[in-house]
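Thanks for the sequence, V.! I ran Cupin domain-containing protein right away. Repeating your input here for the record:
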Amino acid sequence: MTVEFATPYRPASRIPAEPGKPYFIEKGEGDRAHLFGDLFTIYAGGEQTEHTFNFFTCEGPKGEIIPAHLHPDTYEVFYITDGAVRLFVEDTRGEQYEKLLTSGDFGFVPKNCPHAYRIERHHSRIVGVAAGPGGTFERFFENLGAPTQEHGLPHTPVVPEPAKFGTVPQRYDVRFLPDHQWRIG
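Predicted structure:
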């Protein structure tokens, strides 16, 4: 039996809104959102962890690099379970790194470091965890993108209007860098 909860974000969710409540989610049944060509599925977030970490997956097709951004107070990890993802990261001294991550590979992005990724193979999947004093940013995906009940990738990419990018930074510890240039890749 799967339990559904009403939350501030959705009329029905498999994730309880209050902390301290154990729960279980079957494969792919977390809170889902489409953003760009990807499907993000949230399994745990701020409400469940007293804003200490989140846990989500990102599935997508081979595509374009996502917009460069940073999290001033949040650390982020990328663990690849399927496919291949190219991770771009710039450290706080301005040195840039690029690494192709494949199934079983791990990437770490410290807080305040510009980063982006590009899915290099169809049917790639990233397991993401974010933590830090900035809280968690998992609800960013459905606020910038579009909540969905679908299990698959969007039929048409969900590309937010440019003005919408400015609405999420302080609430979700995400700062977009529209003029950022990657000197590698």
